[in-house]
Design a protein that fits this description.
By secondary structure, this protein is mainly alpha-helical. Among the domains are: 508-630, no CATH class; 633-761, Alpha Horseshoe (Serine Threonine Protein Phosphatase 5, Tetratricopeptide repeat). The protein contains 45 helices and 7 strands. It has a 5-stranded mixed beta sheet, with helices on both faces. A two-stranded antiparallel sheet has the order 6-7. A hairpin with a 3-residue loop joins strand 4 (466-468) and strand 5. The radius of gyration is 33 Å and the shape is globular. The chain starts with a helix and ends in a 12-residue tail after the last helix.
Length: 889
């Protein structure tokens, strides 16, 4: 995505607003020194003046526990942990019965590393809640009791029903109730409930930064753009909101925008110089920059006041795992569990890390243990449920792969998938000089939700076709694809390219380079795979949508539209092509080796190719040259108004990035109508060249009206001047339709053949070519297009039937038999005939025992089937031979 600096980091606008905090705060006049004024000071981030207001209140003799509460809260916000401890003890001495102060004391003790005292406070609260429960029935105390109960391991549902929800109903103005409910949802990974809770609360508390921050946390897992908007709002109302700053750094790290992350953390440290999460994120940055000493120093500071804080290593490890450093992440989760063996967030993260590393026995055991201990953890529940599904899968193995599919799909294309993976391994491993000593695990899921749980821990993450973690690959099967399916063979090839490059770099590579190489390798393997330059991408290149190479990874995280996401894949592959063409394939391999040694990508690029500014200029020129070379005989000037007759069906769809599924036409396609109204490309029509958009519009109108002869001229012009055209409404497709309408069979077949050679998902062309080939007895064409169709959808009968029939005619007995056997899995309308054909092929190969079984099944379906009866008699007269022998009846 072409991120603009302001669009990419909107929350950074508020880093420079520290001087404006006082303008947002109330002054310390007598009128502002009331409790409400002090609370507003704290909520707006003016913690220093809130402390002064509290001190002034104490000087005036105010004994309220609320003053103590906000005094200690402000000290915690500023990182004054020892001072907070002193003051909370003073407060407890004055207000011994206060549950809210006791809960706050638990937080203060924990921040100072006094975990035993913290637990003691919780036990005291539990005792008070049990013996003096009548004294604590107001909403604020119910919230405090509920939070203490959760920390002691109480059942979340009971806490919600007995404490949080009644408190919310009793006092709708109490902000702590929705905060507690939303935080509980976040803790249990129920992000949908968290988002709903915080969004509802913002209707009542629209300027409360804590609710905006909670909403950002809920969105951070799946909607980065909305998360950034919520962070922007949080920092607007509290520029010193440290959690919002570290979450901003978190998102910037995801986008590989490390300078922005560093700036956010620096800002946070000016507010709270000892915040554990802030220092943990700084340790993450130092790790990613391969600075182990600085990383250790940052981690040490994160543990300054609580040396056994499991959250620090858990956070560092979680972020490293999100950067595909699963082995390093797993090691850090084990460190966190060394500090606190019962720390469930580290346990479930470790479970996922191990599953992604292929260490499945321990991974599944840990997931089951977390689910046993916390039945409300959504991730653990999802994983345990998925494990039960995977137990029903069939496993196909060889020396190099462990392939898991549903039994039905294993029977239909498991052998084909395993063979494809072997070819990918042989070619890509040799090409990059990588030899794996452990099998690669590939799991293909017919249910998208199961794929999402295995991949992300949550079922609601649609759009991905496949994901590679290193030696573990997950993929959606053809059964889960939409009306615009991808080529599953290209998907597996793409993912195995990730296996190779991640292994070569030890999982240390930027997103853009990883994706770019995989898309590039698709094109090297098959000219119809990968992504081609389209009118859409041409327009985006020339219209200013190219992203600087140094910012390209971020284009995958918060694209403005699905179209921009697809363009990020295409641009990344174009960068790789540029690097290989300009500097050689060996330079690309050396860059990958550098990354594996911990060298930064920009440093490696400068050493192996050119300094980043020069490289970016060279690539931009290369991309523009490539875009301008697309169909130079056509005028690409957008027209002013679209034709009202053009419908959504009349669109041009680019090939998708292989990690993500193609979107519906109305969201990612290049609609012809789009090209009629865009203005970002200078409108300078060339009267000497035919206009692409005008020709397309005219051709589609004529085809829609079935005016076949008139449609020929514009379509033949398009095919001649733009021979690379592919997609759902390729000119080849439309011209083939015209030839069919005119009963010009040879011309139709020629157009379909050209289209099929360019588009690896053109199932319509594949099917029609099989029909025409069968009618003409051209069995080579039938077999070729049946194979093409199976690489898109092997779950329907037609391609298996055509491949079986063509293979019989071509003398490919084994292929024919296997194809008929697969056809039987799909409930063909004439199973007797299929069983008979299998029996005949087996008999011809001397496999008399299985041949008899199939001929009997044919007769079971059709008892008077004469050819089957004759074959049975022949088999009865032939001595039984072992399967695979050469005897012929």
């Amino acid at each position: 995505m072409p991120f603009r600096r302001t669009a990419r980091r909107p929350w950074l606008r508020f880093f420079g607003q520290a001087a404006q905090v006082l303008a947002l705060s109330l002054s310390l006049s007598a009128s502002a020194a009331d409790l409400g004024g002090a609370i507003r000071l704290h909520l707006r981030g003016d913690y220093t003046n809130c402390l002064r207001a509290c001190e002034q209140a104490f000087e005036q003799g105010s004994p309220s526990e609320q003053w103590h509460h906000w005094q200690v809260r402000s000290q915690l916000a500023l990182g004054h942990y020892p001072e907070a401890l002193t003051n909370v003890l003073t407060a407890l001495a004055e207000h011994r019965a206060s549950l809210r102060l006791r809960l706050l004391a638990q937080e203060v003790f924990t921040a100072n590393g006094e975990v035993d005292r913290a637990r003691g406070v919780l036990l005291d609260m539990n005792e008070l809640g049990g013996t003096r429960w009548r004294n604590y029935q107001d909403a604020a105390n119910r919230i405090a009791l509920g939070q203490a109960a959760l920390l002691l391991g109480a059942e979340p549902k009971r806490v919600l029903e007995l404490c949080f929800e009644p408190a919310k109903q009793a006092d709708p103005e109490l902000r702590e109730a929705p905060l507690a409910i939303g935080q509980l949802a976040l803790d249990k990974h129920d992000f949908a409930l968290a988002a709903k809770t915080f969004a509802e609360a913002l209707k009542k508390f629209p300027e409360d930064a804590d609710f905006h921050f909670g909403l950002a946390q809920a969105y951070a897992q799946s909607a980065r753009g909305q998360a950034l908007e919520s962070l922007e709002a949080a920092l607007k109302f509290n520029p010193n909101h440290v959690p919002a700053l570290w979450l901003g750094a978190d998102l910037a790290i995801d986008a590989e925008d490390y300078p922005a992350a560093e700036k956010a953390l620096e800002r946070a440290l000016t507010i709270n110089p000892w915040h554990p999460e802030v220092w943990a994120y700084r340790a993450v940055l130092r790790h990613l920059e391969n600075q182990p000493d600085a990383e250790a120093q940052a981690r040490e500071r994160a543990l300054r006041f609580w040396p056994t804080n499991p959250k620090v290593d858990h956070l560092i490890g979680r972020k490293l795992s999100q950067k595909y450093r699963f082995a390093e992440g797993a090691a850090l989760q084990r460190q966190a569990l060394g500090f606190s063996p019962s720390f469930l967030p580290a346990q479930i993260q470790l479970a996922q890390d191990l599953l992604r590393l292929g260490e499945e026995a321990e991974g599944w055991r840990l997931a089951q243990e977390v689910q046993r201990l916390d039945g409300y953890d959504v991730t653990a529940f999802n994983l345990v449920t998925l494990h039960e599904t995977l137990d029903q899968f069939q496993t196909l193995t060889n020396e190099h792969f462990v392939l898991r599919l549903s039994p039905r799909e294993a029977a239909l294309y498991g052998d084909r998938a395993l063979a494809l993976l072997e070819r990918a391994r042989a070619q890509l491993s040799a090409r990059y000089g990588v030899a794996s000593d452990r099998p690669t695990i590939v799991e293909i899921f017919p249910e998208q939700k199961d794929f999402a749980v295995r991949t992300f821990g949550m079922p609601d993450n649609p759009g991905y076709l496949g994901v590679c973690f290193g030696r573990v690959v997950t993929a959606n099967s053809p059964a889960s694809q939409t009306a615009h399916p991808a080529n599953w063979e290209a998907v597996l090839w793409h993912e195995y390219a990730h296996v190779v490059t991640l292994q070569l770099t030890r999982n240390r590579m930027p997103r853009w380079l990883s994706e770019g190489i995989s898309v590039y390798e698709e094109l090297q393997a098959h000219p119809a795979w990968g992504q081609q330059l389209t009118p859409q991408s041409r327009e985006m290149i020339l219209g200013g949508d190219l992203v600087p190479v140094g910012q390209l990874s971020g284009a995958f995280l918060a694209p403005k539209t699905p179209r921009h996401l697809q363009f990020a894949y295409f641009q990344s592959s174009l960068v790789v092509e540029f690097l290989v063409n300009r500097y050689g394939f060996d330079a690309l391999k050396r860059i990958l080796l550098d990354l594996g040694e911990g060298r930064a990508i920009n440093e490696s690029l400068a050493a192996r190719t050119a300094p980043l500014p020069e490289l970016e200029r060279g690539f931009a020129a290369f991309a523009r040259e490539r875009a301008e070379a697309l169909a130079p005989g056509l005028d690409w000037t957008p027209l002013e108004t679209p034709s009202p007759g053009l419908s959504r069906a009349m669109t041009r769809r680019s090939s998708p990035g292989r990690d993500r599924a193609p979107e519906p036409h109305n969201s990612t396609s290049t609609n012809v109508a789009d090209g009629l109204s865009r203005t970002n490309t200078p409108a300078t029509p060339d009267p000497a060249r035919p206009n692409f958009w005008r020709l397309s519009r005219r051709a589609q109108e004529l085809v829609a009206e079935k005016r076949w002869r008139e449609a020929k001229e514009p379509l033949e012009t398009l095919v001649r001047l733009y021979p690379e055209d592919t997609g759902a409404d390729s000119s080849y497709r439309l011209l083939a339709q015209v030839h069919r309408g005119l009963n010009e069979v040879a011309e139709e077949q020629a157009m379909l053949a050209r289209w099929a050679g360019l588009d690896a998902t053109a199932t319509e062309a594949f099917l029609r070519l099989m029909e025409l080939g069968e009618a003409a007895g051209d069995w080579g064409t039938v077999a070729e297009n049946a194979e093409r169709f199976l690489s898109v959808n092997p779950l329907v009968p037609a391609p298996h039937r055509y491949l079986a029939r063509a293979s019989e005619e071509l003398g490919r007995r084994d292929t024919a038999r296997r194809s008929y056997e697969k056809l039987l899995q799909l409930d063909p309308p004439d199973p007797a005939n299929v069983h008979f054909r299998v029996a005949r092929l087996l008999a011809a190969g001397g496999d008399t025992v299985p041949a008899r079984r199939h001929v009997l099944q044919a007769l079971e379906e059709a008892p008077r089937y004469r050819d089957a009866l004759r074959l049975l008699l022949q088999l009865q007269e032939t001595p039984a031979t072992p399967a695979g022998s050469s005897a012929v009846p």
